[in-house]
Design a protein that fits this description.
four-stranded antiparallel β-sheet, 2 helices, 172 residues
Length: 172
């Protein structure tokens, strides 16, 4: 890490990645940063320069890019396996299944300033992902053509009280 004003190092990271680091990103509050490398993703405490979490990506070929959402609650990682994983920063757990669509690996990931759109870029394309919950619900209702069953609700939404998500469509 470097002091930007003096252009001098402010200390080394004494532990962490065992191999190459490909990308780093600071959280919006500046208290945390993420690094993505050949051996996965790590979260760091900026003040102490010590790791505070390791996120298991399952990407044996490495992570090429990491980015925080504008509110700092979500981290995105993209790598050689062509998947994008959205992470809950507080828990270190993935949010849903990996996003797929890039064909030659994910070289870059970025959130829009409002956080409702996310972009992933590979060698030959850029994919824009909508992250607005209401948009996802509308798409899911159109595909399923019904509401979630109670068991599906519990599986995907846990203890959140059940309610119809697809007005006018049948319950299973």
């Amino acid at each position: 890490l470097w002091d930007v004003a003096t252009r001098t190092p402010i200390g080394e990271l004494t532990t962490g990645h065992a191999d190459d680091v490909h990308s780093v990103a600071f959280s919006p509050d500046g208290m945390t940063f993420a690094s993505g490398g050949s051996d996965g993703v790590m979260l760091w405490d900026v003040a102490t320069r010590t790791p505070i979490g390791e996120l298991t990506t399952g990407d044996a070929d490495g992570v090429h890019s990491v980015a925080f959402s504008p509110d700092g609650r979500t981290l995105a990682s993209g790598g050689e396996d062509s998947n994008v994983i959205l992470w809950d920063v507080a828990t270190g757990k993935p949010i849903g299944e990996p996003l797929t669509g890039d064909t030659d690996g994910v070289a870059n990931v970025a959130f829009s300033p409002g956080g409702m759109t996310f972009a992933s870029g590979g060698e030959d394309n850029v994919i824009l992902w909508g992250l607005d919950r209401d948009d996802w619900v509308t798409i899911a209702c159109r595909i399923a053509n019904r509401n979630l069953s109670l068991s599906e609700w519990k599986h995907f939404l846990g203890e959140e009280p059940y309610h119809e998500t697809c007005p006018g469509l049948p319950r299973p």
